[in-house]
Specification:
The structure is a single chain. About 40% of the residues lie in helices and about 15% in strands. With about 270 residues, it is an alpha/beta fold. The chain has one domain (about 30-260): Rossmann fold, CATH 3.40.50.1110. A 7-stranded mixed beta sheet has the order 3-2-4-1-5-6-7, sandwiched between helices. Strand 2 (about 55-60) and strand 3 form a beta hairpin. The longest helix has 21 residues, at about 1-20.
């Protein structure tokens, strides 16, 4: 009897998996590109709630398939990829416009420097490739960026961060035909670079540069990390802070794209 029940369960699971595989890809998605280094990829410990699918929120997996968005969204380093800010970001937008369907495009890579995101490099080219593929299923509505820790070890890199980033985002927007698409840039954790015995850090300079980006880049918003905490390594945000950071990214987006919330008015 027990063996027969197990066979039934296996057959049911197989049929569900087959049905999902045969279901058409979602259409009319509102797309968001997630790029940067590990604090965009997500390193917060996973909890039960992070494995529960949220209605209307999808992610483009490594195999270029749209699947329900559960953490980890990223696959840059499978052994440590965990909770990030993407799901919390999307949940706020769904709450503001319940009729929307969101597609997240994870492309961040832990430890990457801004130099590694230059046009022609593998990270840049992969992000463009994945975004263009995703855009067959919807419209690119926003770009989320968090990076800078890897550029905090040098005064030269830190002081030139904004100039170099403006060149990067200008080319990326051109290549994606998204010149006016909102872009949200996040502040490095206030805890970063303060670990006792660590090498000298210019994280404060990088944060100043990031905060000034909206003065140079149209349709750009700064996202504060004030008050958020690390997971004990003084590098990565903890899970609770990642969720809060995602909400802050969403509020920054809503401030740049008034049409999002307005779309739900009268429903």
């Amino acid at each position: 009897m027990m063996l027969a029940n197990m066979r039934k369960l296996l057959l049911l699971a197989a049929s569900i998996g087959y049905a999902f595989a045969q279901s058409p890809a979602p259409r009319d998605l509102q797309l968001f590109l997630l790029i940067g280094q590990s604090n965009m990829a997500g390193r917060g410990p996973i909890e039960a709630q992070d494995k529960q699918a949220a209605p209307g929120i999808f992610t483009l997996n490594k195999q270029m398939e749209w699947v329900p968005a559960i953490d980890p969204l990223h696959f840059d380093k499978p052994e440590i990829a965990a909770v990030g800010l993407g799901r919390a970001f999307a949940k706020v937008l769904i709450a503001a416009n319940p009729s929307a369907s969101i597609g997240l495009i994870p492309c961040a890579f832990g430890g990457s420097s801004l130099e590694q995101w230059k046009r022609g490099g593998p990270l840049y080219d992969d992000a463009v490739k994945r975004a263009r593929f995703a855009m067959k299923s919807g419209k690119l509505r926003g770009i989320l960026w968090h990076q800078g820790e890897a550029d905090s070890g040098s005064a030269k890199l830190a002081n030139s961060y904004r100039e170099r980033w403006v060149e990067f985002i200008t080319l990326l927007r051109q290549d994606l035909e998204a010149v006016d698409t909102p872009v949200m840039v996040g502040q490095l954790g206030e805890f970063f670079g303060k670990k006792p015995g660590a090498e000298p850090s210019f994280a404060g300079v990088v944060n100043e540069q990031i905060a000034l980006i909206p003065l140079r880049v149209p349709h750009a918003g700064f996202v504060s990390s004030a008050g958020l905490t690390d997971k004990g390594d003084q590098i990565h945000f903890n899970t609770v802070s990642f969720r809060e950071f995602g909400r802050r990214y969403a509020y920054a987006f809503l401030g740049l794209d008034a049409a999002w919330a307005a779309a739900s008015v009268g429903r």
